[in-house]
Design a protein that fits this description.
single chain, 88 residues, mainly beta, three-stranded antiparallel beta sheet, two-stranded antiparallel sheet, 5 strands, 40% strand
């Protein structure tokens, strides 16, 4: 009796490959607490490490003003810093 690994089983039954979170470096998304540059309130934002652009714009949950988030990554893809900027 032969032992099958997970990729052989997927191929045998025609299944799509499964994302294995423990097999990659870093996480595909992280939640980071930041301070709004307008009103000073603390808020949490989701940072997507699979996104090609290092910056994105999101409105503050409290004052509704637009905030630019710029992520900086290590060479292995881990999040090293998240900077916030006003857009005015």
């Amino acid at each position: 009796m032969a032992r099958l690994d997970s990729s052989s089983i997927d191929q045998l039954y025609g299944l799509e490959p499964v994302y294995e979170p423990a097999s990659g470096h870093g996480r595909p998304e992280e939640f980071v607490a930041v301070q709004c540059p307008y009103c000073g309130e603390r808020l949490e934002t989701r940072v997507d490490s699979t996104a090609e652009e290092p910056s994105y714009i999101e409105d503050c949950e409290v004052c509704c003003r637009p905030i630019e988030f710029v992520s900086e990554r290590e060479t292995d893809g881990a999040l090293s810093a998240l900077k916030v900027r006003r857009l005015d």
